[in-house]
Amino acid sequence: MTNISTLNTVAAATDAVATDLSGPRGKKPKKTFSRRNIILYGTLFVAAAYYLLPLYVMVVTSLKGMPEIRLGNIFAPPVEITFEPWVKAWANACTGLNCDGLSRGFWNSVRILIPSVVISIIVASVSGYAIANWKFKGSELFFSILIIGAFIPYQVMIYPIVIVLRELGIYGTLTGLVIVHTIFGMPILTLLFRNYFASLPEELFKAARIDGANFWQIYFRIMLPMSLPIFVVAMILQVTGIWNDFLFGVVFTRPEYYPMTVQLNNIVNSVQGVKEYNVNMAATLLTGAVPLIVYFVSGRLFVRGIAAGAVKG
Amino acid sequence: MAGLARSGRPNQLFRNLNSKIASIPMILTAVVIFLGGTVWTVIYSFTNSKLLPRASFIGFDQYERLWAAPRWIISIQNLAIYGILSLIFSLVIGFVLAALMDQKIRFENTFRTIFLYPFALSFIVTGLVWQWLLNPEFGIQSVVRSMGWESFTFDPLYNSVIVIYGILIAALWQGTGLVMCLMLAGLRGIDEDIWKATRVDGIPMWKTYILIIIPMMRPVFITTLVIIASGIVKVYDLVVAQTSGGPGIASEVPAKYVYDYMFQAQNLGQGFAASTMMLLTVAIIVIPWAYLEFGGKKRD
Asked: How many domains does chain B have?
């Protein structure tokens, strides 16, 4: 205790010294319209405008009719707001011969998303828990292979997976795609859970063991209730990642199961017919809506998720 | 420190059995898919597999064919231009934005939300939006022309010489927010006292950043570099959505080459050889980093 209090007083003293010394200079920032602030906020606003521009153009374009698009400029707000492009994108935009719109892709994506997210999180959280708290011979080695594997380009592993799935008789089905998402979600999620479980106080784990709790009891009764935030972070990571996937959807499913991203690309980049830019933009917005909603709702947790995933990955 | 006491126990097959059972999916993924799949692909890149994989070995033929193919050469050139420029720009833009955000500004959360939201969007969505913005008939070019600058030309997606820069613009829009966030986390990790000390010594702010802060953030920079770089090698969806590799083959990239040869041209051997080259590229980036990061010191 004494140690900490001395440290505190020392810190306070140095603080006082620092503020004292920078005192004369410290007054400048008080002016709101100093040159520094104008440059600072000016730059930030310009940058923000650049980042917002594409979203704005998407929204504006999707609310215009085709004649207005042909005449006007893309940045102009719509003179006459129409929701027809949205309806058309959802219900009867064409990919090849199918003209039932993006809705099919949306429901496919939902059917892929839910089992993939649930299964990958269950598998990864249990693995992370095993590695963090129940190390066995070779567990660190397997974990290292898993993490190194996260850097291997997917293209290298795609064909062997095709063969495995074909042997199992599930190549081209949704089940196959769910397995693929579980596999490729594993490195980052296992790392996330391992780091989280390792950061929990070890005394808890020890006490439970002394009381005779086994592997699963400790997992369900102690670890799980304590780690709700990390499960939310993992969910955000997986929902956006799986929804945005294109490559696995195209490789591992048949056309009738194509996820939304693949169908969107097929609608927009189809060569037949007249290009309907407003419908295309409405379709693009519809596809981007799910991850955007997740992003805006989750806020700081999203940042935490990508930071945890990225910095340590 | 965690688990040190436990790892010293005598090793028996049935000790920790539950843990081993729980780890089976992870072990299978690591060993069968990641390790086995990679080795399998590398081995089969030395065969003349066409529609189906066949174990008839032909040495380096596939690689010779690969490096003689104009499409592969263009893919590699594109990847090099795109890779180097997107590394430089995303690090510079990301760091500058992070430094601006670190000035105790108002509305920090709003700005961060704005800079980062493109990262939540898929490459397909990103590619399609920028395809529309860069459309020469209706997009930025036509808007500037209608404002009176008649000769203004900005049509990267229709000009094979500069098409890769059009893709770069879209990629930077999507990815710089992430770099900004990583850099900001790095800046926040720097001790306040450093700033106080430099203020006391009267060192100008830009100088502090270049001479003190950036060298201190070396680990953050290196990690960010590795993340961006391993993402660059994988670039695929963005190109498919934005240009489909066109005009002609001007914006092809290695990942697309692999996909096309494996699943469209039914020339598996070529696809395996190209994907092995991708693996090699990643290895060149990741191995030195992993060595620096984990080789010298023990983890935990």
From this structure: 1
